[in-house]
């Protein structure tokens, strides 16, 4: 049995395909493509980005991307290519944008050359037939891109911006041609050719679209710059080529010689070692195995000062080695590096839509047909009720005016351009907004919840005291090092560092390991069942501490990490962490803006209260498990509060994904970063405030753009229809209506570009509610 159309024999559920599409110009185009592709079976999600000319589709099981390709082309648009990543699709889109920009420029030059004598025809004394000959190439070739789009829309039985422009110019052109060829058939006062309207409409609207295309390119500069930061090739250390006898060249100590080999970054595998020389960019994420250098991480973190790196230090793709060379063991190759994932996430977020845009899409879907109906009704009213000697002239003029002045482009560009410019600027600041939906909630937040370890504190805890209840210190530390060896928790790192400083070694091989989020770890070490974790969990699993030992622990002020083996208490570690330098000022700024700040942590109450006092936080939730963090967020939201969660650990992931705004530090675990709506590359809590402030700014610019686009259409469409004529005798000319339409799109684009300057982005004080 053959598979139905659109299915393949080897599907891959959830895969993403990004198509680069030419010919999309307005919100109607976006709505049409989304509707057509969204109807295909097994399409899970579809996002159309007007600014980058991309259509991102998440395919369900068995959907062949070729079917999506055909569905888009059936609408009359050109599919220029497809890819599995935004980066490749956008590169193709930039090339197409440059081609379109060039074509529009030369059409504008021709239009301007032909328009000049037409606009000044009555001063130059040109004959009507000369004006007709000048207007013909201007209308046909100069406006070909509009007419081609109109023809395609007719075949699809839909309407878009091209429909409006083409109809308005053909209305003026055909009427003027009729006046020239058959003047005696019209009343004397209607024998007014509108060549200046034809010239003005074609030339000014083409100029507007050219400027709009150029502006779109500027809004995507930040992401393009990020993409250029990754090197194309790297030096990999591989065994030297054997001699003709087949012998491996030995080093001085008998080890094989490693030679540098310049290879494309795509060919580097996990576990290989690359060498990065001074001034070169690191192309992968990894760990330094040899060498020392200062590394410029400004691209990712926004921090201007270089960071010293040595053996054991983590480094990131896109950062630059300043002095000395580094040998780096690859943990994530170029395509999976932090830089690559950031670029992909930013591009995906720029194509996402805040809630307000969905309303705009519904309006845009009926906008153009509605305008055509209004234009037809306007012409009919003037033909029946206008001054008798000017009825034909005024009917056609008002119809051309309405068609020319209506601007679906401004509606379609209002949100995407602001997102492209704003998120690109935020990325340069080290703030990555993954989900545009949060922009609606950022401006109305009621509460911000902070995790403690690694968020409010530096996440570099250290063991300040070891307490032995049974056995000796060496045995306690050895068992704990073995059990915690596979854990990602900062406390595990603290215990391992303490053990190394004491000269201890893991007690035995680990036979099994299980992490219990918010509680601790359970491991079988040398046949012994070892539990390391929080006191409440150990009490639940093993039983209460002996009274004497419990009394010792109650006097300690830091975090307590208990150790049990085979059902018996062996001892505990007292772990201390340091508050981040910017924590108190960030909390103060948030409180000043009217936002309630809370601390939520799995640590014991005494430790949590001490950290909260240092940070200036009054409300504390301590000894909270990961699911209880999420439950707290859910409870606050159920009470009508808009909640943001700031965290960086595995334990924070449920709460981050549930909160209205989830903010993660990039230094945290992968699952926390993936669960968050926003990621901060620099662990500076002042950036939490800056991120919320700049998010509000993006939201405000989107609303300004939409306000202008709606008000423009609501005010000028009635004026274009002749609403001022009965009172003031004013009827605007079609060329001025076309100029106003072009100005509307350009003003939206320029307003969005203000975000590229990042006005106020560095000021940590947020707006007051």
CATH fold-level name of the domain at 438-457 and 579-676: Rossmann fold
Looking at the structure, what is the overall shape? Answer: elongated
Report the average pLDDT across residues: 79
Strand adjacency order, main sheet = 14-26-25-24-15-22-23
Q: What CATH architecture label of the domain at 438-457 and 579-676 applies?
A: 3-Layer(aba) Sandwich
Strand content: 15-25%
Tell me the name of the CATH class of the domain at 438-457 and 579-676: Alpha Beta
Instruction: Tell me how many strands there are.
Output: 26
Proportion of helical residues: 40-55%
Alpha carbon gyration radius: 33 Å
From the helix content, strand content and strand pairing, which structural class follows? alpha+beta
Q: How does the major sheet shape up? A: 7 strands, mixed
Q: N-to-C terminal Cα separation, in Å?
A: 63 Å
Helical segment count: 28
CATH superfamily of the domain at 438-457 and 579-676: HAD superfamily/HAD-like
Overview of this structure, please?
With 769 residues, the chain is an alpha+beta fold. Among the domains are: 81 residues, Alpha-Beta Plaits (2-Layer Sandwich), CATH 3.30.70; 102 residues, Calcium-transporting ATPase, cytoplasmic transduction domain A (Distorted Sandwich), CATH 2.70.150; 118 residues, Rossmann fold, CATH 3.40.50; 115 residues, Calcium-transporting ATPase, cytoplasmic domain N, CATH 3.40.1110. Helices cover 50% and strands 18% of the residues. A hairpin with a 4-residue loop joins strand 2 and strand 3. It is elongated and about 115 Å long.
